[in-house]
Amino acid sequence: MFDKLVDRLVRSGNKTDVMKEGVSREAVEWAYRLLLGRDPESEAVIALQMEGNQNLAQLRNNFLGSPEFAPTLPPGVRIQLHGGEPPSVIESDGSPELLARLFEHVHRSWHQFGEEQPFWSVLTAPEYRDQPQDAAIDRFFASGKAEIERFQKTLARIGLGLDGRRTCLEYGCGLGRVTRHLAPHFERTTGVDISAAHLAKAKALAEAKGIGGIDWLHLRSLDQLADLPEVDVIYSLIVLQHNPPPVIERIIKTFARILRPGGIAYFQVPTYRVGYDFRLAEYLRNPLKPGMEMHVYPQDRIFRIFAQAGAVPVSIVEDGCTGIPRERSNTFVFKKD
Fold first, then answer.
1. Cβ-contact 274, 326 below 8 angstroms
2. CA separation for the pair 254, 306 (Å, rounded)
3. Which of 53, 276, 287, 337 falls 20 to 30 Å from 315 in CA-CA distance?
4. For the chain, what percentages of helix, strand and coil (3-state, to nearest 5) are there?
5. What are the Methyltransferase domain coordinates in residue numbering (predicted)?
């Protein structure tokens, strides 16, 4: 369906590489008609989609991953991989100096997001751009409660729960969207983020609602991972994917190390994408510009890291968190013996 949109735009005389640059009004209108079967509900929505999507590939992925599109698929139809895809080259080793450079790049990008687009950088729906309306902010934080409910249902399905677990660490807490709903279940919750701008807003927003029991921790360097406290529960969703694989690896190794015996690690990361490779020298050859990157870290390495720490996988599901076609994103639950 989306190919028809691209063909139409090309035939209309737009000779720009439409999959790389820009989203026009016509592209937005036809995305609604072809993918959702309706016209956009307002001029404001069209403007938000034009501003919120950098190219047609992003527009397509957002529509294909939207809750409104999913019910339009015939029963049993899913956009998925079949298992016979080619291997990827994903380098995750590097000198301390190169790793520090990678981390600083991510750190700088997300601090800028925290200052300029704090809500949209967490949930990339157009309604969260700039300063959202109060109703949108309420929906933003309500979505965090829904995430915790899904977490608890996942644990219940495998015979586990949060009772008796005293401490929790959320990695990539952002504005505390989920953190504020985690906190009531634990004696102490630590919200960790690399963006001081996000953390400052998270703390202020939580305090304004009278929410306590949270320690907000700014991670300024990869070396600080060594200082993270041991905890009973680790939680991290839609976070690791924004880091290059060498940084993802250091974070996951930290998860495995700081998880206490009997503890649960619940986290999400894309584990495969058709056409994705990561070669460190090639990545660093070009200037590192601030932006929201999407990366992948292989499933087998995650298993190996946790096995070496004495933890076993108790649940692995394909979650569709990224909405990117021909990508596999997994939510893992590991339990340490």
1. yes
2. 10
3. 276
4. 45, 15, 40
5. 169-263
Report CA-CA distances (Å) from 199 to 8, 188, 215, 239: 45, 17, 10, 15
Is 108's pLDDT higher than 80? Answer: yes
Domains of the chain: 2-72 (no CATH), 96-336 (3.40.50.150)
* Res 19 pLDDT > 60: no
- Three-state SS string over the chain comes to CHHHHHHHHHHCCCCCCCCCCCCCHHHHHHHHHHHHCCCCCCHHHHHHHHHHCCCHHHHHHHHHCCCCCHHHCCCCCCCCCCCCCCCCCECCCCCHHHHHHHHHHHHHHHHHHHHHCCCCCCCCCHHHCCCCCHHHHHHHHHHHHHHHHHHHHHHHHCCCCCCCCCEEEEECCCCCCCHHHHHHHCCEEEEEECCHHHHHHHHHHHHHCCCCCEEEEECCCHHHHHHCCCEEEEEECCCHHHCCHHHHHHHHHHHHHHEEEEEEEEEEEEEEECCCCECHHHHHHCCCCCCCCCCCCCHHHHHHHHHHCCEEEEEEEECCCCCCCCEEEEEEEEEEC
Q: What is the pLDDT of residues 139-176, one digit of tens each?
A: 999 999 999 999 999 999 999 999 999 999 999 999 99
Q: What's the chain's average pLDDT?
A: 90
> What is the identity of the amino acid at 15?
K
* Closest alpha carbon to 174 in 148, 150, 206, 152: 206
Q: What is the token pair recorded at 129?
A: 């751009």
